[in-house]
Amino acid sequence: MSRHVPIRMCVACRRRRPKGELLRILLTPEGFVLDPSGKRPGRGAYVCPDNPECWKEKKLRRFAGAKAKALAEALAAHLGGMHGQGQDLPAG
Questions:
Q1: Which residue of 40, 48, 51, 81 has the smallest Cβ count within 10 Å?
Q2: Which portions of this protein are annotated as coiled-coil regions (predicted)?
Q3: What would you measure as the largest C-alpha separation in the chain, in angstroms?
Q4: Edge-to-edge strands of the sheet including 23-28?
Q5: What is the Cα–Cα distance from 84 to 13, expressed in whole angstroms?
């Protein structure tokens, strides 16, 4: 019997993938927080960690609005070499 695999959608490219393949981002009052475990409380969005196109400001506006530029810069800095997952991102 196969186990249920939750499917989520990237807010940037709208591609549907298994939850484990995507990176969850939370928008908190302090700023953006990466949640690779997907278990932190709060409303989040998902982005493809392996597709730099998904980290562009224009694509992130659906989720972050006016803070999209700060989020895009933070994602590029943190995911550029896949380092720093699970750390807080600078407030936008």
A1: 81
A2: none
A3: 45
A4: 31-35, 23-28, 44-47
A5: 23
pTM of the entire structure? 0.78
**Domain assignment of residue 46, given as a range:** 7-79
Tell whether 1 is covered by a domain.
no
Mean per-residue pLDDT for 55-72?
91
Q: Give the total number of structural domains in the chain.
A: 1
Q: How confident is the model at residue 74 (pLDDT cuts 50, 70, 90)?
A: confident
Arithmetic mean of pLDDT, 51-71: 91
CATH number of the domain where residue 13 is located? 3.30.1230.10
Cβ(35)–Cβ(29) under 8 Å? no
